[in-house]
Known about the structure:
The chain is mainly β. It is built from 1 helix and 18 strands.
Amino acid sequence: MAKNEVSETIVSAGMRIDGDLKSNGSIRIDGIVSGKVTTSQDLTVGTGAQIDADVLALNATIAGIIKGNVTIKNSLNILETGKILGNISCASLSIREGGFFNGNCLMREARPENKQESKDLRN
């Protein structure tokens, strides 16, 4: 594996983790995690999956259940089978018909990457 290549962590169906899960790469969860889930990349929660704790990620697609607060730097997508029981903080949110969310939502405005770009937009 090359130094710049970041692997994906997979929690397969039928697997249970009791404790925090941290990764620098993307995470896919199809099992059960009872502990905080943190990644600097993308999080995918499959249809039969459940997370019983807080979540922190760059982007997330939720088809399973999260019982905890969800903090996403960019976009959060709750699919038809997805459920979030907790507060959400993100820059972009989409909830498909059938998706469920119960909690408070804080939307953050997306910020330009470059400070010079920000100055140019104001003029």
